[in-house]
Structure formats: structure tokens, C-alpha cells
Amino acid sequence: MSAVLSFFLPGGMLFLASLALVHVPSVRDSLGDIAGIYPYAAYLFSVVFGWRFNRSALVFGTVSIALAHWCLVRFAQVPPGTDLYWRVAFLSTAVLLPLNLLGLAVFKERGIFTPRGLSRLVVILSQPVLVGIVAGRDPLRYVALLEKDLLPYAFLQGLPVPQIPAAVFLFCLIAAAGLYLRNRGAKESGFFWTVCAVFAAFVSSPDQDQEAFLLATASFVLLVSIIEVSHAMAFRDELTGLPARRALREELLKLGSEYCLAMIDIDHFKKFNDRHGHDVGDQVLRMVAARLGRVTGGGKAFRYGGEEFTVIFPGRYADDALDHLETLRREVAMSQFVIRSPMRPKRRPKKPGRRKAPPRRVSVTVSIGAAWPDGRTETPDDVLKSADKALYRAKKQGRNRVTT
Length: 404
Description:
Elements: H1 2-8, H2 11-21, H3 25-29, H4 31-35, H5 38-52, H6 56-76, H7 84-106, H8 115-137, H9 139-146, H10 154-157, H11 163-183, H12 186-204, H13 208-235, H14 245-253, E1 259-266, H15 269-276, H16 278-293, E2 300-305, E3 308-314, H17 321-334, E4 336-339, E5 360-363, E6 366-371, H18 380-396, E7 402-403
Parallel strand pairs: 6-7
Antiparallel strand pairs: 1-3, 1-6, 2-3, 4-5
Helix pairs in contact: 2-12, 2-13, 5-6, 5-13, 6-7, 6-8, 6-13, 7-8, 7-9, 7-11, 7-12, 8-9, 11-12, 12-13, 15-16
């Protein structure tokens, strides 16, 4: 359920809200005034935000949308009675824009003013020139080619856009949905809804006001999704996937008078790192974090730093916290962690070959210190310090135990 909500919020909500708004009579009557301000404000704010935080996907995605918008407006102002050049612009942008957005969704973040970033910008900005060169030789043939029917079915001939651009949009939507299913990220869901908004804009053409409104919404959806990505980078630990220390600080401010805080440390982690290497150490951190993420009893786990973690049991869950911490300790101690070989492929092969050597298995234990608020520890920071002292005692007493 949470995965479905994270896919629809906020990008899907913004897209559906924009579709509803353009059909509200009061909004539709003033759409011309809105379309004169909203798109340029959305483009400018998105580019400035992307430049400030070095988010090339946001900057280049917005540039692609704004460039398509400019082409549609520019060639809609042709002399009355001829729409050939507008059709060239419409068909070209309907094919190239979703492909550009999909490419930006697939490519990793490489910065704006870097060789790779600038090369992507050059590709985007050169597209109108290349279209002008190709279409300029025989615009009628160019338009006929892109308006050609792929399948001779009557219901397909009634599509609001020609079949080739429609097929490109469908391909990009399926690919963007596949990216989200693989990565479950805000960036991937944002690009999916951005392509949806762009498709809605082309469907509404030649209504220039509605088209501009929906293209601006596409840029706004992209902006919000990248803000979500930036928030996740600040509040979620990239290695383990658990909420990070900054998220822990905010969670501590929400606690009432009853709670339990536990500090957890992986035993002998430095020696383990020295013996097996940092890559294997990272694997162990991820595997222990996965166990902590499934802690029972209403607990919530955080990455505190290094090999240390924190678990919060708020409110009514505090009384039974020790039982669940003891269960957690036993589960970690009984687990046999399989060390991933550095030569192992990231994806499981369809026909796995013979294993040359048995997988390495290691046992890991954790020490846990727990504390509750009392007369001497009135603030969450004081309780956290008490839990840290209890953790120190657990390690002094032989490790692999829970101490209060």
C-alpha cells in the first residue's frame, strides 16, 4: 500500500489535479491569463532550483519542456491558412520530448557543468536545428511520415495524436513505470507523471492555453519529484536505506513522556573490516540494517553513524521494548550472513554456471544499550546518552547482550 501511495504522491496527485482544474469553468475562463505567467514561473523556478542544487535531471528536463513549448508557440504564429510548419513542430516535439525525458530518467546524475552534463545539454539544444535541417528539405514528406498509421484499425485512427507519437509516448510510459518498479524512487515516479502531463498537453493541442498550462505542470511535477529526491538524500542513509541521523533528530522532537531508546553497535566491526575489507563491511552493515528495519514491537530503526544504530520504541511500545530488543539480538546472532563475491553479477543470470567455491558465511553479533526517561533524564538527548552508556557497559561485559 505504501509503495502505491509513494508512486501516486505527489506527482500523480498534481497531474490529476491539473487535469481537473482545466475543466473548472472559473479556471478555464482565466486560463489565458494563467498561461501567460504560470509556465514561465515554473520553468524559471525549476531551472534555478536545479542549478542551485546541481540537479541536472531537473534542469535538462525543464529545458526540454520549455524548448518544446517555445517551438509550439513560435510555429503556431504562422500566416493564416498554413499550418505545415506547426505540424512539423508538433510532431517533432511529440516524439523527441518524451524520449528526452525518458533518457534523463535512465541516466545517472552527472552534474550540470561537467563534460557529460554539457554533452546532454548540447544534444537537447541541437534537436530543433536538426529537425529544421531534416524537415526543411521536404516538410510535406516529413509530416506524412510521422502521421503515417502503424496499424490499420479504425479505433486507432481516432487517437488525439497520430499513431507514431502515441506509440512513443506509450513506450516511454511503460519504460518509466518499469524504472520505478525496479528502483522505487521519487525520481522515477516523477518522470512517469511528467510524461503523463506532457502527453495530456499534446492531446489538448491546438488549445495553446491548456497546452501551456499542462506543460508547466509537467515541469512542476518534475521539480517536486527532485525535491523529494533531495529530501531523501538528506534524511535517509544511502548505504543501508534506513532513516539517517537527521531524521532521528526530528523524530526525537516528536516523542512524548513515555518511550524507550536503544543504541545498537555491531561487535568487533573494525576487526571485521580489517580482515574482510570495506566492501564486505558495507554488506554486513546493510544486512544488519535489514534486520533492524524489521524490528518488532513498534520500534523504528535509524542509522546513527558508522556501525551504530538507534531504535525508538514510542509511547505504549516502551514497556515491552526489552523483549523485542532481546529477540532482535538473538535473530542477528543466529543469522548466517552470506558474503557476496566481488565477481558475482548484480543480476541473477538466467543459466547460472557451476559455483567454483562455496559462499563465505560469517556470524555477526550486536550489543544493545537501552534507556527510558526518568527523573534524571528528562530530555531525549539525555536518554540517548544513557542508552549509549548502557551500550558501553554491554560491550565491557562481553558483548552480544542487552543492557539497561
